[in-house]
DNA sequence: TAGATTGTTAATCGATTAACAATC
DNA sequence: TAGATTGTTAATCGATTAACAATC
């Protein structure tokens, strides 16, 4: 648990640090300076030192940080030594794509449960994962020690599903719908929102901040 | 184009404002106060007034803001009156899922081009969209007026694909790989990064900030 | 010792918010 | 007119960064 004062901004940078450090380790680089790591990740070196200090990680003056130690410590912080079983709610296009996607299990997030409220889907299976009715959510979440809930339903159902996940004791939720969900304080929610990302991109297209080359000119709709 | 000084934070909130405003419009609410809108979106009312003012939108003292006008103005700002043709690079699991996903076209981002560097895939089609070899990227991007490039390749290819898109004149890129890409200033990049989101969630699980209920207890790997 | 780099303080920056006069 | 709400100033907050003494 170390210090305890880790800002959300720092947490958000940890995956990028780790990615770069794993590359350095693969290239047999044994130590790295905050300056070098900062450049690779695209942040300021003082920020790197701050972030590492907040994790209780120290380097050696005049030398830098030990790459392997950094990889180990950040991996532990990110919980990468453990498996976090996942429940996916919604077996539509997205839910099935997730069930087919092997990258989740490879990263320590095996899908242990796939749920859908369409009775016709119950009993079918996707990539060897059986689809269960949502009515069994609470029992199955407990039975399979689910740690992370993924909401892959239509937006209208997002809050209802979130409530059911929280009631079943799930404390981490990944919301793929455009609908923001309200949860108690101790529950952590992240949103992966394609619609919002696209709208932000089109804002910049629209403003011409991303253009002037001739392509990317809008076509009028209808 | 109005004022011009719109912060990235403001842009990031526009989709949420719009979502809430569309709901209000559907419920025939004609005006809304910054206080009410703020509560719905989960921000401070001064922030709402700031954001709207930065878009050049004014309300009426004692009354509030006109809902329909707000919907119209924000839609224009977000470029929602236009279509932004999309090129998806990578016809693997993710690329095909995107090609199958109707939500993109519904939101004004029709997929006009699907590319893959596997010669065996060239000529096949997904949801009626033909797969072309990556070698034809530049020509087809121009021919089909592509505005937005989506990178759905393995992470290793991300930078190379980004370079090709930029060279072809694409100025908005949505990167689905975990690999950050470097682009010239005038190009806008957004990343949708499942791996990072999951790692952030597992950080909080690991720290027990999202727990104490008994479920979500980690299982040791290997 | 001389050079490099950390760990941390103090300055800076940008964004959020409280507060309130203006005004519908 | 009285009540409500905007538009904006000034205060606050949190995060980033420059700078540098400590020290390997």
What report would you give on this structure?
The structure is a homodimer of 222-residue chains. Chain A is an alpha/beta fold and 222 residues long. The first copy, chain A, contains 9 helices and 11 strands. Chain A has a 7-stranded mixed β-sheet. In chain A, strands 1-2 form a two-stranded antiparallel sheet. The structure holds a DNA duplex (24 and 24 nucleotides).
Task: Describe this structure in a few short sentences.
Two copies of one chain form a homodimer. With 222 residues, chain A is an alpha/beta fold.
Number of helices of chain A: 9
Given the C-alpha coordinates, what overall shape of chain A results?
globular
**Any idea of the CATH topology of the largest domain in chain A?**
Rossmann fold
> Could you give the count of β-strands of chain A?
11
Q: What CATH first level of the largest domain in chain A would be assigned?
A: Alpha Beta
Return residue spans of chain A where pLDDT drops below 50 for at least 5 consecutive residues: 211-222
Structural class from helices and strands of chain A?
alpha/beta
- Domain count of chain A, please report it: 2
Indicate the mean pLDDT of chain A: 90
Radius of gyration of chain A using CA atoms only? 21 Å
**CATH homologous superfamily (4th level) name of the largest domain in chain A:** NAD(P)-binding Rossmann-like Domain
Instruction: Give the CATH architecture of the largest domain in chain A.
Output: 3-Layer(aba) Sandwich
Enumerate the strands of the largest sheet of chain A in spatial order, edge to edge or round the barrel.
Answer: 6-7-5-4-8-9-10
User: So what's the oligomer here?
Assistant: homodimer
Largest interface: A-B, 78 and 78 residues
Largest sheet of chain A: 7 strands, mixed
What percent of residues of chain A are in strands? 15-25%
Distance between the termini of chain A: 57 Å
Helical coverage of chain A, percent range? 40-55%
């Amino acid at each position: 648990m170390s210090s305890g004062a880790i800002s959300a901004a720092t947490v958000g940078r940890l995956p990028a640090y780790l990615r770069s450090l794993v590359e350095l380790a693969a290239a047999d680089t044994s130590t790295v300076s905050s300056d070098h790591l900062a450049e690779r990740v695209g942040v300021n070196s003082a920020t790197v030192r701050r972030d590492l200090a907040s994790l209780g990680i120290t380097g050696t003056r005049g030398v830098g940080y030990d790459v392997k130690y950094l990889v180990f410590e950040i991996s532990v912080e990110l919980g990468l030594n453990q498996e976090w079983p996942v429940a996916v709610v919604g077996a539509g296009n997205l839910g099935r794509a997730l069930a087919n996607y092997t990258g989740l299990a490879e990263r320590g997030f095996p899908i242990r449960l796939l749920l859908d409220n369409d009775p016709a889907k119950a009993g079918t299976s996707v990539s060897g994962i059986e689809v269960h009715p949502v009515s069994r959510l609470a029992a199955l979440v407990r039975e399979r020690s689910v740690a992370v809930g993924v909401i892959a339903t239509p937006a209208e159902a997002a809050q209802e599903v979130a409530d059911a996940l929280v009631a079943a004791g799930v404390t981490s939720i990944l919301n793929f719908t455009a609908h923001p969900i309200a949860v108690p304080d101790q529950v952590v929610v992240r949103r992966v929102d394609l619609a919002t990302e696209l709208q932000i991109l089109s804002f910049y297209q629209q403003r011409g901040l991303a253009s002037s080359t001739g392509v990317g000119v809008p076509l009028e709709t209808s």
